[in-house]
């Protein structure tokens, strides 16, 4: 029987995940956490074979997102980590794999895909949601484990956008034209395979660009 720990700040999500995970009869949920702080305490006291964790669980002393993934990789290098997230895009996929996740599952597809993700990671394989595989195919991308790279100026623009500045305000602050800032924003989003401002801001927060 595989021992699974689940972490999500929404109790209703954890209930649903427990039902899905235990339905096969081969897995047992041995612990639940509502945030990064609870998760680290739970992992230190409860042995498990697989961790299923949300990507965004703000509010604790310990950071979530990529910082949490990096910490888990350092402290539990052999523990397979399945990331369940609503930020299902190629940028999150690449960066999550680069920070130690073995699987990434879109929240909207978690009920259908979680069992497959668990089977994959216990065999030492990686797993990505079908919607992400389709994005990778459409983008004609290469190695999905490589984190996307932004130039210094692109990163600066993304950080300021996520901090609440408009394109016009950024242009005035850095003494560049509005069209230049707009182009750098567009290039950054294309490089990250992100299509909406919401996903861009989520990426900036999870990448540590803004608090």
UniProtKB/TrEMBL annotation:
Keywords attached to this entry: DNA-binding, Phosphoprotein
Record-level GO BP terms: phosphorelay signal transduction system; regulation of DNA-templated transcription
Domain Response regulatory: 3-122
Start and end residues of each HTH luxR-type domain: 143-208
Domain of life: Bacteria
InterPro entries: CheY-like_superfamily, EvgA-like, NreC/VraR/RcsB-like_REC, Sig_transdc_resp-reg_C-effctor, Sig_transdc_resp-reg_receiver, Tscrpt_reg_LuxR_C, WH-like_DNA-bd_sf
Residues annotated with 4-aspartylphosphate modification: 54
One protein family per Pfam: GerE
UniProt GO molecular function: DNA binding
Protein name: Response regulator transcription factor
Source species of the chain: Pseudomonas haemolytica
Top-level taxonomy: Bacteria, Pseudomonadati, Pseudomonadota, Gammaproteobacteria, Pseudomonadales
